[in-house]
Design goal:
about 40% strand; four-stranded antiparallel sheet
Length: about 160
């Protein structure tokens, strides 16, 4: 079996999820994914894939909540508004399907990538490294980076 990326599933700090099919993703760069192995407390031993940064362009068709996603507010405001208002994307699952079976919609594998994170305040929810905006043509741009903001990377889209 060969695997092919089907979608990206963002997980927010409050547990909400947002699955974005690959056809609704434009520019995408996940910088320096490394592999770690460990456990926190008494949890299971696991592989962890932290990255250095993320930049992503998401088309208007993705501004919705899928029925399989966990939703605690995105339905009311839309996922674009939610991502801009609450900068708390914690991690992302890269979802794979079997590319040899063109009818397959089932996820055959996934890898979880963790983003750089620094709390903005004592609530420890919002991430100081995440910035985003929605362009005039309703495209969402998100950057999670310790040194650059969405304005630095996508200045021509403002």
């Amino acid at each position: 079996m060969k695997k092919e990326v089907k979608a990206l599933k963002m997980t927010f700090k409050n547990g909400e999820t947002w699955t974005i099919d690959k056809e609704f993703i434009g520019d995408l760069w996940i910088k320096h994914i490394s592999k770690s192995f460990g456990r926190i407390g008494n949890s299971e031993l696991q592989e962890i894939f932290p990255c250095e940064s993320l930049k992503i362009e998401i088309f208007p068709e993705a501004d919705e909540v899928n029925s399989s996603d966990i939703n605690l507010g995105g339905l009311e405001m839309g996922m674009f508004d939610r991502a801009v208002k609450y900068p708390d994307i914690e991690k992302m699952d890269i979802l794979y399907r079997d590319s040899e079976n063109s009818d397959s919609v089932e996820i055959m594998a996934q890898e979880t990538v963790y983003f750089p994170y620094e709390a903005i305040d004592s609530d420890r929810i919002d991430n100081a490294y995440q910035s985003s905006f929605v362009s005039q043509d309703n495209v969402l741009y998100i950057v999670i980076d310790k040194e650059k903001t969405v304005k630095d990377i996508y200045k021509d889209k403002f």
